[in-house]
Automatic annotation (TrEMBL):
This is Acid-resistance membrane protein. The lineage of its organism: Bacteria, Bacillati, Bacillota, Bacilli, Lactobacillales. It comes from Enterococcus phoeniculicola ATCC BAA-412. GO terms for cellular component: plasma membrane. Keywords: Membrane, Transmembrane, Transmembrane helix. The keyword Transmembrane applies.
């Protein structure tokens, strides 16, 4: 178990720097960050397509059959094209559905608060805040998405700085 922690701690400084840099990028350039995410997802699908097609080619040389790998490789290529072609639609739909989930959760919380005999005040306030946040997500998706991205950036920065602090604290333990 100690070996696992040593290995994990070994890369903590790299994780901390990466989280902090990505967090700063997301915080300062949320629109560009989301476009980069789309390209990253499309790139991942292309990479998976290449891997599957190469595996299919190898299988074809060995057995004369392409198996399922060729179909899945072509499917990944198709997914990459779909993600790139419909990137704006994908980005605009995500906040709407997140908002819908938050509204449903807020309504559920509101009903629970109204049916609770004691301690209604905080539950009512919380459920109203949830409803308002969900409606804002649903009806102002792009600006909300940018704010969510910036909050994500702040969380990454905090996580990255935490990794760096832990690295220097734990370095003394595992020398």
């Amino acid at each position: 178990m100690e070996a696992f922690f040593k290995q994990f701690q070994k890369y903590a400084i790299l994780r901390g720097i990466a989280y902090t840099l990505v967090g700063i990028f997301a915080l300062t350039n949320p629109g560009v960050f989301f476009k980069a995410i789309i390209y990253f997802i499309a790139g991942y699908f292309v990479l998976m397509g290449i891997i599957n097609c190469l595996a299919a080619r190898k299988l074809h040389k060995e057995t004369g059959s392409y198996g399922f790998s060729m179909a899945s490789g072509l499917f990944f290529f198709l997914l990459a094209v779909i993600v790139l072609f419909f990137s704006k639609a994908i980005l605009s739909i995500i906040p709407f559905f997140l908002g819908l989930l938050v509204v449903v959760n807020g309504l559920s919380q509101l009903l629970q608060a109204l049916n609770t005999p004691k301690g209604k005040g905080l539950w009512l306030i919380f459920s109203i805040i949830m409803l308002a946040a969900g409606l804002i997500l649903m009806f102002n998706p792009f600006k909300t998405l940018l704010v969510v991205c910036q909050v994500f950036g702040v969380l990454l920065i905090v996580n990255g700085l935490s990794e760096l602090v832990n690295y220097f604290q734990l370095r003394k333990l595992y020398r």
